[in-house]
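Appendix B. Chain record.
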Amino acid sequence: MTDAELAILSIIAEGPIYGYDLQTVITQRGLRAWTNIGVSSMYYVVEKLERQGLIDGQGSPQADGLTRRQYQITPAGFGVLQTAVADLLSTPREHANGFELGLANLHVLRPSQIRTAFIAYRQELQSRLAQAEERLSRLQDNNQAPFYVQAMFSHQAAMLEAELAWVIHFTEAWEAQAPPDDAPPPIPELPEIPRMKQVVLPHDPDSPHRVPTRPLRPSDVHPGPAGEAKKTATGRQTSAAGARPIQSPSGPDDMPPDDDRSVAAQDDPLLPEKP
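Structure tokens predicted for this chain:
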């Protein structure tokens, strides 16, 4: 069950409620500050809970002639709610905290960068703490939420206050041992990679994947007078103008070695077919 589903189910468990009034309660209690409940997504969650049999919706006609749907929790829904709440209160949760990952990598920043980051983090914590305390004070003054709902914002304020105090203490301790402002971040020296473990590209002369080239034989290329046909490295004849290959009878000197015949036959369509 998601946080949004649990929050909506818990509100409906307090008593029968219309969809519009459900939106009002969500806004008054500031639930959108820590759950992903939008105006349209709230009705999607309500429909999902109803399909699962956790709540029951009944349409009731109003004075204006419209029918409004009222929701109430079912026995099955109340049992699911009890299980979910008991699990949340009995098991501490580990939340992914990017701030802790940043602390583990302070060494890659300059001192001025670290100070700027800590100042921004402290300002954000102070802003969130002020918002949590303001919401809690408004709920207490207007009696808009039960005591257990007020406890949620009281806990948020206490956690933010504790984190702010820790950040202030850590910043003071870091300043006492911080390097000079002009000190660059240390760059570790990488060990030299042995030749055998390096990536060898095919064009590297030392590459074991480089395909050796068959040396030319005397019969492959031999000069001739101008205008006379001569053989190229492929064993074919061309005219002096070089316009078009001339197929000639193949002799023993013209044939590639036995291990190259199949490849040559595939690559050169002008070679005579094997009888």
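Further analysis of this model is presented in Appendix C.
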